[in-house]
Specification:
2 copies of one chain form a homodimer. Chain A has about 200 residues and is mainly alpha-helical. Helices cover about 75% and strands about 0% of the residues of chain A. The first copy, chain A, has 9 helices and no strands. The N and C termini of chain A lie far apart (about 55 Å). The relative contact order of chain A is 0.11. Chain A binds a DNA duplex (33 and 33 nucleotides) through α1 and α3.
DNA sequence: TGTACATCAGTGAACGCGCGTTCACTGATGTAC
DNA sequence: TGTACATCAGTGAACGCGCGTTCACTGATGTAC
């Protein structure tokens, strides 16, 4: 998990990269220890040396993808000063991540109920708390200043994340052909409309 | 799949009911043929007689749950005359279904990337097309009358389904404690705000 | 600088378990004459 | 109405495969003196 030698880090990196590749190309069903070791060129024992179990590897991969996505969103928000531009930047950052890191985005969405995260829930919760806390901190003064509608925090999150997550899901599953460019153009504004304070209040 | 004798229907029902119960209590990992047959009291061979494979059973269960959820939404929309009341009714119907049919809602959300639906994609697509077509038909005159913002169909869907699906997911996973009553109170209006035409246009 | 030693990293054959599936069979139901 | 027969429904022992995991081992790296 925390290699003490340089070459350890390289091996961990190879395994995680191969795992993501395997998941993207073979799906949940093909996501197995043997497939990952074969794709990575790393031995089975080495995988267990670094991750302890296959669930451990999956959880590490999930955590890494989650951190990448969250960092992108936090960055977007931090560069913005007004609530409107902040929300718009966050939405665009999420959708851009989905395209540019398609495999990571897919893995994040698909792992939600997979079960291999159960044993590592605390670790993941910590990442989410940290990153979403940063976004919440950015929002707080705006909420207090009445620049957002007076909604409970979780509902603001749901109104922002819901449409973009649903857009990403549809694009990733390619069942519905959703136009991501169009979504990137329209959604930021529409989402902001659901959050802004009532004009006549 | 389509039993020719009465008792066949009863067996199918027992299997589907037991399968949903197993999934709800044991999750993806515990969702196996043996667990389902044990919970249902039906023999293994009988399961294969009716569903052909375990994936077949899972797909049938998914389809049944999907139909139930969709019917609830279509009903809600059909009882409404204005776009605003229609959207509000649809949102409330979805959230009510999530509470009242918790296990079915969980199975629907969790099955998205599970892989056992791959072989039955066409069947599922047909159900979705039918039901969402009904909702789209309800919407069309309102869109043409300019009572919705001029958005592409898929984006309207995403703006409606996104926040409620995300709310349901968080409530179902009970990682975040979201208040469903509060959501039912606030979300319909907020979602409508994201869809309604720009007041100053 | 060289040597000894502890620790970290990497290897792959072997194992057991439980999964989905098959199959030969019995019993129940519906139908034809 | 009774009998023969085809089909549907249900049973459970048995099978093979591939999964995650273990383990005894070798090799590489870093460190102490």
């Amino acid at each position: 998990m925390s290699p003490k030698q340089q070459r350890g880090e390289a091996t961990v990196e190879q395994l995680l990269t191969a795992a993501l590749r395997v998941y993207a190309s073979s799906g949940q069903q093909g996501f197995t220890v043997n497939a990952v070791t074969a794709a990575s060129g790393v031995s089975l024992g080495s995988l267990y040396h670094h991750f302890g179990s296959f669930d451990g590897l999956a959880a590490a991969l999930y955590t890494r993808c989650l951190e990448q996505l969250c960092d992108v969103m936090v960055d977007a928000v931090r560069r913005s000063r007004t609530p409107r531009t902040g929300i718009r930047a966050l939405v665009k950052a999420y959708l851009r991540f989905t395209v540019e890191q398609r495999d990571a985005a897919l893995f994040l969405h698909a792992s939600a109920y997979s079960g291999y995260l159960d044993g590592h829930a605390e670790e993941i919760r910590a990442v989410k708390e940290d990153r979403f806390g940063a976004i919440a901190a950015w929002m707080r003064p705006h909420i207090e200043a009445g620049e957002f509608a007076p909604l409970p925090g979780p509902l603001i999150e749901v109104l922002v994340m819901g449409p973009i997550a649903e857009t990403a899901r549809r694009w990733l599953s390619s069942t519905y052909d959703i136009d991501l460019n169009e979504a990137t153009r329209c959604l930021p504004d529409r989402i902001w409309r659901s959050l802004r304070p009532d004009p006549d209040e």
